[in-house]
Amino acid sequence: LGSAETPDLAEVRGQDEAKRALVVAAAGGHGLLFRxxxxxxxxxxxxxxxxxxxxLARSEALEVARIHAAAGLDPARVxxxxxxxxxxxxxxxxxxxxxxxxxxxxxxxxxLAHRGVxxxxxxxxxxxxxxxxxxxxxxxxxxVHARAExxxxxxxxxxxxxxxxxxxxxxxxxGVRDCRCDDGxxxxxxxxxxxxxxDRIDLHVPVRPVRFADLDLAGAPTPExxxxxxxxxxxxELQTRRLTALGLPDxxxxxxxxxxxxxxxxxxxxxxxRQILARAVDQLALSARAAHRLLRxxxxxxxxxxxxxxxxxxxAEAVSYRREGG
Length: 326
Description:
Elements lengths: L15 H13 L3 E4 L6 H7 L9 H13 L5 H6 L4 E2 L7 H5 L9 H4 L4 E4 L7 H13 L1 E5 L4 E5 L3 E6 L18 H9 L3 H5 L3 E4 L18 H21 L17 H5 L3 H14 L3 H17 L7 H9 L6
Helix pairs in contact: 1-10, 1-13, 12-14, 13-14
């Protein structure tokens, strides 16, 4: 099973939907937001993500090791074990701490998470300006620092993983205890996360408290991360072959990075899947960006299932991951 740093998904009881979403996110490199009451298991699930991610390629490991060495961190673990970085800054982190910069222009958490995962727990508690700046990082895979005499570009090709409570007290809609927030407090808390930022997160997944019966350690075993990682590797191999054949460069050979101009050629939705997508866009009032992200997620689900085209079931599952966050 997993280590103290990286737990195994087999250690998580219940939460089948959240675990499935974690595997989908790993397979396609998608951003993922968990929402749920305190104690529901959001942080534990998030810390399981590295256990199902593919290891760094040799060239990636060398790149990450150089970044960590330049930041004064020990690069040995990255170089030897090829583990993807998992950075989890506290929500009190400054803008420079998160994005880099400062008086001596050092790398921030987004650069230290390059080729790996940036986990933002208690997402609404982070500085709003920092989160809005993160939007461009997620789009471009880099962070740009412009000063009077220089312009520095640092790599930040990361996978965003985030967790949030549903409200200030944490219990709105939880079924665990009554929410103490009034309508004004709920509205203010919701406004801490902008629509454009949420639009850039592919999967929005509720994490509900697990019933005691599902916590029974003697119950039916759940798949271990090692087996799920093999599913992720197979899905990534499929997308790498497909996107390489389309002539896309290495940095765009994940479904989450398919450029808009290649989207329909790369995803190949069936007629039924396109109809489900059209209905979802109308009923959920989704933006064009969100519709494109639905296509990318559905393509990853189809890859996990070994389907050459996106079937209606894969598109319906992808839509289910947008209902919580728009």
